[in-house]
Amino acid sequence: MTTPTKIDATKLVEIQLPVEGMTCASCASRISRSLNKMDGVGEAEVNLAAAEATIRFDAATLNKDLITKQIEKLGYHVPDKVDFAGEQRDLGRRSIIGLSLAIPAMAISMFGFLQPEGWRWLVAVLATPVVVWVGFPFHRKALAGVRQRTLGMDALVSLGSGVAVIWSLIVVIGGFDEDIHFGAAAVIVGLITLGKYLEARAKGSARDAIAALADLGADTAELEDGTIVPAGELEVGARFVVRTGARIATDGVILSGMGAVDTSMITGEPVPVTVTEGDEVVGATVNQSGYFVVEATRVGADTTLARIAQLVARAQGAQAPIQRLADKVSGIFVPIIILIAIGTFSTWLLLGYSVAEAIAPTVAVLVIACPCALGLATPMAIMVGTGRGAQLGVLIKGGEVLEAAHDTDIVVLDKTGTVTEGKMQVTQVAGADRTSGPSASKPGATDVAQRLQTLTNTAALEYRSDHPIAKAIVTYVDSLEQVSVNPESVQDFEERPGVGVVGSFKKGAAELKQFGVGRSTMFASVPDSLQAQASEAEAKGGTVIFAGPIESADTIFTVADTVRPSSQRAIAEFDNLGLETVLLTGDNATTARAIADSVGITTVIAEVFPDDKDNEIAKLQAEGRRVAMVGDGINDAPALARADLGIAMGTGTAVARDAADLTLVSADLLAAVDAVRLARRTFTIIRGNLFWAFAYNVAAVPVAAAGGLNPAIAAGAMTISSLFVVTNSLRLRNFKSVRRTGSSSPTSVSAIETQEVSS
After folding, report:
1. Which of 39, 304, 356, 432 has a 20 to 30 A CA-CA distance from 491?
2. Does CATH number 3.40.640.10 belong to domain 422-561?
3. Minimal CA–CA distance to 390: which of 306, 456, 459, 471?
4. In terms of DSSP H, where are the helices of 577-633?
5. Domain formed by 9-82, architecture
6. Residue 101 and residue 99: Cα distance in Å, rounded?
7. Is 21 helix (H, G, I), strand (E, B) or coil?
8. Alpha-carbon gap, residue 373 to 460, rounded angstroms
9. pTM greater than the 0.90 cutoff
10. Which of 262, 414, 554, 636 is flagged as catalytic?
11. Which CATH architecture has domain 396-420+563-669?
């Protein structure tokens, strides 16, 4: 006996091969077992739903041709691409012809008034072609399985129908006065073939959801000079224009212009996103209004849309751990059923029944036990569930994720970029006795013109800085109506590191007046009322910037990383799912507590480094908790990898996405709720499928062995069982998102004036 070659896992290469001809889990298991026995194969997985085999092997020992020959020796075909439509047409043609002949054969066999002289020969002529030609795919694969010493569902169908026809031919040709089973044999093959056709249509419908996503890409692109080129010919660095109503040709960054982009096909978000210079855009999304020029940054297989399709395809090929139990059962199920069938036949003979009477329950056992439903239970649900997730912007990496999501009892949330927007924004503008901006109090008595001058001077100074706080102030002031920022109006600009910036502005005809933006220490004095408001804002976790004439500050800007609009509702939804929530952040405790209180989180773990985040997850797991971690940054990657369920925000870093089990294309925390709900729902469907598949076989086999099922009825019941699993899985296509349409509008100067400023 030869010793298998030891395989170096670091040198394995991976290929995906399409496989035609698989009809059930036994087919997939047979191919998988055979490939895994090959010298040089590290791991082989076969996905029945996707009709694909994924093989990791040592290229020094094996190659694609040898693997292909091994699969084809089992009675299957490895084409360049699986012709699902052709396979479906063939099954449809066989089922129509089969049932057209089988139903008359069955009717003549059952009803005496339909039986002319020599009717047995007529039934033989009608039924034999059905069993031989329509059932040929079953016989071919059963024979290949016998040669490879593996038995699957095909063996049960082939053996059951073959025994019935051979016995019946012996009776007719020999002129014996015994029962014949031509009609039952033909109906068995016809109904099972019809079931396979309906399954193929249903699986095709599930595949179509992803195919439709992939087909949403733009066909053409308009270059800056007006030339129209195929979108597939764009290269990185190419510049193209996007007009109102046009589909963006590929991923890129906006060089000029602005628009409102409908990203719902990628993110599941119904609200168009306003984009302008410097913003990234995703290929295949639609510009609802506006005009902008884009520089391509990713093309072809590197685009967001292509990566989503690749990830979903891989997820659909993955097995859930619960499926391994089903595969093991399927692997030993057929031999056991054949033994039960032999026992059934022998028992009936020992009880004194004739051979003809013993054959009917034996055939019924073989047919009713076909484990089709068992094999479809998991892959069908995973295929539909991951496809629906992709439509909602939830990318599930594999079947293991479904079980992890089902068992999760606590959700740990990063703060910045997850619960919050991840970018600094002005949340409040206040004067010595007044407040304005996003968080406003009652109007003060300061002159509006003076207030506007303070805003424009502040923005003009901050325009020269790249600091996130400076950018937040400039963005805020730019969003106000009736304000025009002129950076050129600043004279004698001076940057004071760690303190702020100072510059001079004209006051009157020629007089220059110094103006500062920064820490309170920059100013000669700060009014007590302004200092009190600053202290209050800082206690809530905000960063305060003082502004005004250098001799006395008269305004403060509170800048903070604002909470995402949907975060509070997301926390409530997690609570409805029975999940405890924890805020885990490297930020200071005061800010973390303020954010947690605003969204309804009670437990806060603050001021932790990346390694500490990992350790905190480990501590929870040591307590027996099943932990889901939601994050977006490089510092979250260790914790995402450590967690039982890692969920990465799609707007985060590639490192975080790679470490996670689930990726959310959207930046909305409610998408994380959808992810958990969808994963739980999919797993529930899988469990339901497996329960009914097991229950069906366990309950039906004894009834068939006792003679309680006609073979033809057994074939119909087996087909109905498989269709139940398929239709039950397809219910996932109707899964509803918890997200809803929202709206927002820019703040205006007129609003500031009426709310609180006469500033």
Report:
1. 432
2. no
3. 306
4. 589-599, 610-622
5. 2-Layer Sandwich (3.30)
6. 5
7. coil
8. 70
9. no
10. 414
11. 3-Layer(aba) Sandwich (3.40)
